[in-house]
Amino acid sequence: MPTPAAKPQQEIAPGDVISVNTTEVMLPVTVRDSTGRLVNELTRQDFRVFEDGREQPLNDLALRQVPVDVVLMVDASSSVASNLDDFRRAAEGFAGRLAPEDRISLIKFDDKVQLLQDWTKSRFQLRRALTRLEPGMFTRFNDALLLAAREQYRSTSSRRAVIVLSDGIDSGRGTTLEAALKALLEAQVAVYVVSNTEISRASKRAELDVLANGTEATVRFNQLRIDDLREGLRVLDQSEHRLAQLTSATGGRLYKPRSFDVLESTYAEVAEELRHQYALYYTPLNRARDGGFRHVRVETANPAYQPQTRIGYFAPKV
Question: 3-class DSSP state for residue 59?
Answer without folding.
Answer: coil
